[in-house]
Amino acid sequence: ELTRAPQMQRELIPRLLAIGLIGYAVFGTSLAVIFTSAQVWPELTALPTWLENTGQPPIRFAADADATHGSRWADGSAIQLIAAFTLGLIGAIGVCLPSFYFYGLLAGVRTTMLQVTTNALKGMASSAIAVVGAQPIYFAVVLGLLVFHAPGWVVGTVCFLGLALPFIAGLYGTWSLYIGFIGLADTMPEHRRCRRECFLRRLLFAWSACFTAVTPVMIFTLWEYMSR
């Protein structure tokens, strides 16, 4: 309801953006602590190199015996991880936002760029809250593996799951965005609403797929660039 109030949108945008930034910064910090505690660290391969040599994965975890001594914080690797997740998600929203606005116009929804931005940031803030809520459970799982000396491949697999955690939790944010935007169907003319609402649902699914594809590429590209 607040996102539909024009007088509230300018106030909500910085607040929702702050929630998203803080939430993903907390997540990135926790992930860096988990990796250093497990004495592993992800090694990145540039996308052009990976495309030329498909046998080498773009991300692999390597043993890092010095990680517990704070070397990853001293050399800036942990900061790069935090910045990649925080700025990458914001960048992905910025890239996909114009298409989100035009999809709404194409479906016949009466909306503004401010309202679209508010809805997009509401989804991001919801995802950030969800991923912070899931973080203690994930931390407990990794701690259990370390205490019981799980094999290295098991720890590496669970660490990969940690990198995917924002996208799993992001489903909640996508649902929040979908519910908020589909509610704007009542701005359509009543005699067209049924057919246009169905079209709007398809466009929202298309936008969600586009955002899901852009986000990991944006995060990985920023992370790999900063690591160089």
Q: What would you note in describing this structure?
A:
- With 228 residues, the chain is mainly α.
- The protein has 7 helices and 2 strands, in the order H-E-H-E-H-H-H-H-H.
Labels describing this entry:
228 residues; mainly alpha; two-stranded antiparallel sheet; 7 helices; 2 strands; elongated
The residue fraction in helices comes out at over 70%
Low-confidence stretches: none
The coarse silhouette is elongated
- Termini separation comes to 45 Å
Strand content: under 5%
Rg calculated over all Cα atoms: 20 Å
Number of helices: 7
Instruction: List the quaternary state of the chains.
Output: single chain
What structural class do helix, strand and pairing data support? Answer: mainly alpha
H/E element sequence:
HEHEHHHHH
Q: Tally of extended strands?
A: 2
Main sheet: strands, sense, barrel? 2 strands, antiparallel
| Strand arrangement in the largest pleated sheet | 1-2
Query: Averaging pLDDT over every residue, what do you get?
Result: 83
Per-chain topology:
Layout: H1 6-37, E1 40-44, H2 47-52, E2 59-63, H3 71-74, H4 77-107, H5 113-147, H6 152-182, H7 190-227
Antiparallel strand pairs: 1-2
Helix pairs in contact: 1-4, 1-5, 1-6, 4-5, 4-7, 5-6, 6-7
In short:
The protein is mainly alpha-helical and 228 residues long.
